[in-house]
Every structure is written in structure tokens, then in C-alpha cells.
Protein: RecBCD enzyme subunit RecD
Amino acid sequence: MGKEFFAQVDALTEAGQLRRLSGAFARFIASVGEASPQLMAACVLLSELEGRGHSCLLLSELNADPAALLGWSGDEWRDLRSSVGNWPENVADWRDLLAACTQVWPVGGDNVNQPLVLDGDRLYLRRYWQDETHVAGAVRGRALGGVLAADAEAETAEIRRWLDILFPHAPRGGSTDWQKIACAVAMRGKLGIITGGPGTGKTYTVARLLALLFATAGERQAGLRVALAAPTGKAAARLKQSIDIALDELAGKVGSALPLRELAARMGAARTLHSLLGARPDTRAFQHHAGNQLDVDVLIVDEASMIHLEMMSALLAALPPQATLILLGDKDQLASVEAGAVLGDLCHNAEAGEYLPETLSYVEACTGQQVPGQYAGHGGPIAQQTVMLRESRRFGGPIGALALAVNAGDAGKAVEVLRSGEDGKVAWTDLAQSSDLLQLALTGYRPYLQLIKNLSENADDIVRLGILRSFESFRILCAVREGEWGVSGLNDAIEQRLQAAGLLKRTGEWYVGRPVMVTRNDYATGVFNGDIGLTLPDPARPGALRVYFSEGETVRSVLATRLRNVETAFAMTVHKSQGSEFAHTAMVLPKDGGGMLARELIYTGITRARDYFTLLTPNGQVLLDAIGQRTQRASGLRHLLDS
Ligand SMILES: Nc1ncnc2c1ncn2[C@@H]1O[C@H](COP(=O)(O)OP(=O)(O)OP(=O)(O)O)[C@@H](O)[C@H]1O
Structure:
């Protein structure tokens, strides 16, 4: 049974259209129950979608156009579909068919650990269903739990007193002070979500929230255990640095009323989520979990858009119920590579606010502000604990205008901003040749390579840190991995161009000046997925090479030959650039996006640029198409959060 179907699956796998895993998964499901070709087709699609970040398969997609979801051509899809034979006609028929399969647990029916779960009109791998229901339940519980009673007048008065100290100036033009509101809202429950684009003051706000938490902790003030974390090491280091600076500044303002410097000094370093939870080699399980929770009262997590479903579930399980969780992130950025778009789902009401009357009166009591009527509504408990910061302080000018236009899906406006080339801050070449790009790479990477050329044998680590910083001032970001305009092709071409210009000498895999990105966590050498380092001569051993990584104000190095999972990083994917910022960011789009490039990717690339943004593509239409397309990740989280 299903012979013809699997022959199609194998052909598509050979043609590189399907993951090998997808066919293998369907065969496994067939081996543990009946092998209806319809169920097999659903399994292949479910597995493919999981590989693309979706946490479930919506049955409505089975009836609409799964080909579009997968970026397949009509022909490929038609052949696979016809090999299935009878294709159920509507969602209800699909539901009945799947619910009758022994490998599927229809929620509410007999649960005997079936590998697939059917929850309403969504089909899941059991693991994702568990993670999604756990995340929904845990965040709802946090949003509802510990909420200040409506008559907690003493508490609200104290919060207001401190908020007036911490935010002494009303925002420009007397507009709503969302930063102040975000602090008030986070004080109300055990969950606070602060979202906003780059430079909207998320870190500025959370530093004040921390001060507020310390100030109102009473006798627990000195013992309040605060942990800072982020999905990547770089983002964690940035968070810590910004919070330290902000708290130091605040300490001067609040004076002796609050010993902020001492309290901040006790906070310790920011960690990656993996390290916070105690990742262990060769297992997905963490040292901290529901049975051995973290020892914290407040956990602040930055770059939350990068947290995937499984990690969010692990994080929530490891966090004691009485601890406060603060999530910071930009909901419009690309979601994690792995399944789930958790922050996007949690923030689906953020733009509109959807605040209940209780929230509005609480906010007024704590901040003295009336939230404009347009933000009132009937949102669920998560919406009540979420605040979107709406004004960017650092991100005005053409780069900000471009990001706004892309976010709004306005391709015409985006092109207008790009073409204006305003102040030389944005530039675009829509019929780029590879020589244009290589010339840009030469200009962008020359400064750090020159510094390396002048590096003397007895230079100290401050000099090396300077070289690392110089490298961080320019980066080429690609939308795709493969091909001439993808990461792999470009890294080769750039190496050759820099070599031809005499800026580097490539003698083998490792050479002086090679930038590398770590692609897997390596506990033995202490380097983590996404870390970026530069290869420099080993001062202690002539002829040997070390890779240097910046760590705040200092550097750390590992012998090059000890690093196994790395790739050259003159060009990197937009995905991997999340959490980083470069003075000049050049984004490269391929000749053909294959229908897979979307607005979130373009927005994320643009918002990596601090001062200058250049966009290069051999085909400008790819940009227009991408801006017109949104990434929709199938997930049941929104539904579960609101139900
Ligand atoms: N209310 C405010 N008054 C004065 N300056 C502010 C205010 N809010 C933010 N800033 C300043 O604006 C800049 C950007 O703020 P911040 O770094 O907190 O933004 P962010 O949203 O965390 O940015 P990113 O997403 O890039 O991390 C900082 O220099 C900060 O000090």
C-alpha cells in the first residue's frame, strides 16, 4: 500500500525538494499502524513544515494549497497528490480520516501515547503539541497569577512615586509614555512583554523596571536574585553592557534613595539561555527543569524573537512560579530557525493594545496617564501584560523610514527611500553584478585587514579587541545560503578578491584574517553557535593560529585547530545576524527568491544597520516580491492563548 506514493516521495527527495527525514518519518508512521496514503501525505507535509519552522499542519492548508506553503511548483505537487488517490474534500473529512488512524490522538479521545496529535483542525507531532500547550498554559498562568488586586492602593501609590522619579520627563509632544506604562504593567503580574523596533528603548525601559523592582522589594531588596539572558552570547553581552550603563546613569539620578550600583554589581553576567538552563552535551534535557528550577526572582530575556518553541517551553518549566519573567524583543523580526514564532504569537495584539478596562485603570493609577481610547479592547491575559514601544530614538532617518515601509508592506515607499540615497545612508543596486559586490567587500573589509597587517608580535589584547571591533563595523548579509548570491558562493568569491588585492594570504583552511562563525555549541572549547571570531597569529607559538572572540571589553581565544564546527563569515545569513548590529550592513538578495523570501527577513536585515545600509541584488523584483510576502508560521499558540 502507498507504493506509488513513496515512489513519488523518493523522486522528490532525490530532486532535493523533500528532506530525507520526511519520507523516513512517513514510513515510520506507516510501520506502527495502518498506512493510509492520505495519512502518509499528511505526515510528509507535517515533517516538511516542521523543517520550515511551523509547529503544526493546519488541515485547512491541506484543502487550500500546500504547494504554496512549501514553495513547490504545481507539477511537483500534482504528481504527489495524484499518487495518494482519493483526496478528502474538506477539513471535516480530513479530520474524520485522521482521527480514525491508530497513530493519531484526537485530543479528548483515548490517549495512548500516539505519535501524532489532532487538536481541532491542527495536526501535530506530539512533542510540539506538548510544548505549545505547555507554553500557552504557563504564560497564561504567569499573566494571570500574582496580579495586583484592584484595591492595592498602597502598592500602586508606591509604584507611581518611583515611576515619577525614574521617568521625570514627559515624552516629546506630550504623547503617551509607553515606556512608563511598560514598567507599570510588568509590575502587575509575573510576566511582562516589552516589544518594539530597534532603538525604541527596550533596554532603557527594562533598566528602569529593574530599579523599580529593587525599589519596591522592601526587605528583599538586597537579596533580590536577578538573572539576565539572551538566546546568543553576543546578545547576552550586549544586554548586560546596556543595562550596566543605564543603571549606572540612573544611580546618579536617584542618589542615596536606592543603592543601585551595589545592587547592579550583584547581578552577575548575562548568560545564553543554553547556559542559564544548564545545557549538557549530547542530550536535549537541561540541568534545570520543573523538578530543579532556577534560583531566581526576576529573569530578563532579550532578543526573545529568537526563542523557539521548545526552548520557551524549557525556560518556562525551569522558572519558579513566583519569579517574574520579562521578555524583550522585536515582534516583527524573523522568527527562530527552529519551529515556532513564539514572540510573534505572544505579541499578536501588541500593535492594537486591546487593553481591558481593569488594565487601563491600573495604568492610570500607576502612571497618571490615560491610554488613548484606540488601544482599549478585549484582549486576553497576555495582551494585558504586553506593551509595544512605538517611538525609535536612534533609528530615524532613511534607514528607519525604510524599515517602517518594509514592515508596512509598502514596496513603493521602500524603493523610493532606497533610490533617494538620502545622506548617503542608504544605497541600492537593483541590477548588481558580482563585481559590484566584491568591490564593496573590498572597501568594507580593508580596514580590519590593514590593522592585522600592522599587528606587531608583542601587541596586547586591547589591540586585538580593536581589530575585532573594526571587523564588526561592516558585514555582508545574505538571504540564502546556496548559489552565487548566497553565503557559500560569496564567501569563496570574497576570499579570492581580498587575496588578489594582497589583503590576505589563503594558504589552507585556516589563514590570518579569516573570520569564522561557530555553527554548533562546543562545550570543550566554550564557543557557541553564532559566535564570530577572527583568526590571528598565536603570540605564544610562531606559525600557529588562534581564533579571537570579543567578550565585552576583553577577548578570548581558542587554538584554530581545536575549532571543528565553523564556517567562513565574510558573508553570513540574515538569520544568523540576529542580535547583532553593524555600522554598515550590506544585504544581498539572490536572482530568484523562489517565493521563499518574506518581509520579516528584509526588515531584520535592514535593522542590523546602525549608520549605513546597502542593498544589492541582480534582480530588484525579488525585493518587491519579498516585501509583499509575510511569513506565516502555522501554530496553535494564538488560539490556545486566547481560548
Ligand atoms: N525615554 C528616553 N529618554 C532618553 N533617551 C532614551 C529614552 N529611551 C531610550 N533612550 C535612548 O535611546 C537609545 C536606544 O535605546 P535602547 O538601546 O534602550 O533601545 P532598544 O529598543 O533596546 O534597542 P535595540 O533593539 O537595538 O536593543 C539609547 O541611547 C537610550 O539611552
User: Anything to note?
Assistant: The first helix runs from residue 3 to 14.
